[in-house]
Amino acid sequence: MTSQPDMMMPADLPAPAEAASSEAPWLAGLNPEQQAAVVAPDGPLLVLAGAGTGKTRVLTTRLAHLLLSGRARPWQVLAVTFTNKAAREMIGRVSDLLGRSVEGLWLGTFHALGARLLRRHAELVGLKANFTILDTDDQLRLIKQVIEAADLDPRSWTPRALLAIIERLKDRGHTPGNAPESELGDFAFGRSRELYAAYQERLLTLNACDFGDLLLHGLTLFGAQPDILADYQRRFRVLLVDEYQDTNVAQYLWLRLLAQAHKNLTCVGDDDQSIYSWRGAEVGNILRFEQDFPGARVVRLERNYRSTGHILGAASGLIAHNRSRLGKTLWTEDEQGERVRIASLWDDEEEARFVGEEIEAHQRRGGNLNDIAVLVRAGFQTRAFEERFINLGLPYRVIGGPRFYERAEIRDAIAYLRVVHQPEDDLAFERIANVPKRGLGDATLQLLRRTGRDTGQSLVAACRTLCATDELRPKLRTTLIQLLQDFERWRELTTRVPPREVAETVLEESGYVRMWQEDRAPDAPGRLENLKELVHALEEFESLGGFLEHVGLVMDNAADPAGDMATLMTLHGAKGLEFDTVFLPGWEEGVFPNQRALDEGGAKALEEERRLAYVGMTRARRQLTVCYAANRRVYNQWAASLPARFIAELPGGHTEFLMRQSVPEPQISGWFDDLKAGGRGPGFQRMRAAGKAPLIEGQARVLRSELPRSAHRLEVGQRIFHEKFGYGRVLAVEGNKLEIAFDKAGTKKVIDSFVAPA
DNA sequence: GGATTGTGTATTTTT
DNA sequence: TACACAATCC
After folding, report:
1. Maximum average pLDDT range among A107-121, A157-171, A456-470, A680-694
2. What are phi and psi of A634, to 5 degrees?
3. DSSP character string of A162-207
4. Fewer CB within 10 Å, N- or C-terminus of chain A?
């Protein structure tokens, strides 16, 4: 590996007019620390920015500043964001600051940038420039093939487990060749390395990459081609990284290589908001920055512009329980505001009812639903809220629900396009070979696979080989030849017409659209709608390749639905966002902190859960409500639950308890005694001193197990209306559950109280 | 090739 | 418990 001499920046740049805001109006309104970060001279810079301290603003302003002051040209900049959304916003903000659109920047997520780089040099790692980016589903299918090919039973050695091992290795920058023994695990009697290698080989044959490869191949490339690395090192005079606390080892190595020449790297992050260790993120990267980049400047942003004093105080008090942190003292000049409310509820239904009521009250006061968020630990928790909100007719949006690109019909359509674009994509080919049915059954596919493996060809090529022989039955042969010709024709089409038209033609001529048109299933019309939406989405793209790249990388949902709606999402999804009013339900041991996380990660995981709680709390500007339920259904069994230990850690001076009188809470009495070393936690002591500790006696009651029956009697065949899914027809009635074929939303099972006769 | 039955697992978070 | 998947039978 080449090592560049340690040197300072050449002095050929004009000394920028630092800090004089009359000459640099974009500095106006920034506090001294923010300004210091924006105008800091070349060299490694770490901006430790607490929640709500204007981190993104500083980063974008620094970028604009560097461009405006002539210290860098757009194409010399590499800027990394955590999500694609953040990338779009950053481009927008920089353009605003510059007063014109910026072009030529390398700006995006690690993966998007990795892909961009890899496309340029694909041949050097054994790929072609049009390689496919696989999603988890494809990966699992491929890994399953690998496991089976190794004569292992995928039931005892699950693809999911092997995928986890491989992803872990890739996150740490390990290829099959250099993965340390200690990190391989004992999968399949120590055959991880061999299986990993086989998987990588299969990927190359398929001309495909998984997410981890986008960076790993880059690292391999840089290692093997010092001249190419040197080119990029010279080119990228400025590197900017957002959310540095969530980078993994591979990303860190990638960055460090690229920053080697100019050592002009700005990283922004907050160790207290590191919440992605399960994806390989290493808090260590940010904690070690000053050792990794000697002479680094460190700027701390500690003035919070977002939250009230009580919210900030409560959040700071909580995070102070973590041991491994750099430590920051956030402060605000904002008013103290309302105390953080802690509400105890009977069960998850009452929790949802409570939040619903609070939101309605907010609405009655003239408040905006867009200012409200309900942030949950895990996706399944949204259900209770959705049901309640539908019942109340309360508009809401769920961020991060099932994704458009994961629907079966969309994946099928995309598989067609993938084969058109990249004939070696066997996974895509297998997906659609017999969809719609064209008599290519299991047996034929087996034959194709065997032929492909024996001759080292892709499935499409194997088809061609087989068609040239007379091994096949005439009918089958005709079918295959027809299919091959179709793909040839469609491929040729891509050179002449825009991608949208290609997609339309492919979907028509392949019979895929007809298949759904003829399908009598009630959700078929909805699927056809989705296909139309897909075709529509293609209009934005100039090439099929561009579209497929987008599909592979941009896993986020279609644009958030517009209008005034409350937001429902996971805590992870809420990173970087803020809302006036925030509800944090489900603060119960096992749910949050999540039991599985604790089982797997122990004390470290507990700290991460606490950081997650901190992230959630600091999303709130004016009002924050934490809730916990005394009872929760686990696998449909009622179980008493304990309030999260985090509740005991909130400083009593910033909180208040809302106890609902209507609800006896037997399990509550003495609950903190079971926690936190017998109730000796400081938070508990303070609460008790303040008379806030909940001490309610009561007796267990028989729990409700059924929803109230609907007032309407509904019968099979009846037309109904559902507040979320619209009009539909009843297919079946089972107790209080209905199966309904919705005109738009497909077939769903819903509770009868949510529907009304149309 | 499709329907039916049985079995095992699931609820963490996402680029 | 409920769903997804695989094996089995028609």
Report:
1. A107-121
2. -120, 120
3. HHHHHHHHHHTT--TTT--GGGSTTTTTTTHHHHHHHHHHHHHHTT
4. N
Looking at chain A, the whole-number percentage of residues with pLDDT higher than 70 is: 83
The count of C-alpha atoms lying within 13 angstroms of the C-alpha of A154, restricted to the half-sphere facing its C-beta, is 13
- Is residue A123 flagged as an active site residue? no
Q: From the CA of A428, how many Å to the C1' of B4?
A: 29
> What's the Å distance between residue A623 CA and nucleotide B15 C1'?
31
- Stretch A292-321: mean pLDDT: 93
The number of residues in chain A equals 758
CA distances from A475 to A430, A469, A480, A509 (A): 20, 14, 9, 19
In angstroms, how far is C10 C1' from A667 CA? 55
Tell me, yes or no, if A273 is annotated catalytic.
yes
Nucleotide B10 C1' to residue A382 CA (A): 17
Which strand B bases fall within 7 angstroms of a protein CB?
A: 1-2, 8-15
Half-sphere exposure of A185 (CA within 13 A, CB side): 16
Whether residue A357 is predicted with pLDDT greater than 50 in this model: the reply is yes
Q: How many CB atoms lie within 10 A of CB A380?
A: 9
A555/B14 CA-to-C1' distance in Å: 9
**Segment among A14-28, A302-316, A382-396, A630-644 with least mean pLDDT:** A14-28
- Mean model confidence pLDDT for chain A: 81
Of the CA atoms within 13 Å of residue A279, those in its CB half-sphere come to 11
Instruction: Express as a percent the part of chain A with pLDDT over 90.
Output: 38
pLDDT digits (tens, 9 = 90+) for A21-35: 556 788 888 899 999
| Residue A233 bears catalytic tag | no
Question: What percentage of chain A's residues is helix, strand, coil (to nearest 5)?
Answer: 50, 15, 35
| Contact indicator for A198, A150 with CB cutoff of 8 Å | yes
Please name the helix (run of DSSP H) or strand (run of DSSP E) that holds residue A655, with its range, or none. Answer: strand A655-659
Q: What sign has the CA pseudo-torsion A352, A358, A361, A362? A: negative
Nucleotides of strand C under 7 angstroms from a protein beta carbon = 1-3, 6
A153: nt with nearest C1' to CA: C6
User: For residue A479, is pLDDT > 50?
Assistant: yes
A749 in contact with nucleic chain C (CB within 7 A): yes
Residue nearest to nucleotide B10 (CA to C1'): A635
Closest CA to A384 of A420, A415, A416, A352: A352
Banded model confidence at residue A73, pLDDT cuts 50, 70, 90: very high
CA distance A72 to A69: 8
Whether pLDDT at A232 is above 80: yes
Pick the closest to residue A544 from A598, A504, A593 (CA basis).
Answer: A504
What type of residue sits at position A184? L
The reply to whether A635 Cβ lies less than 7 angstroms from strand C is yes
Q: Is the CB of residue A571 less than 8 Å from the CB of residue A612?
A: yes
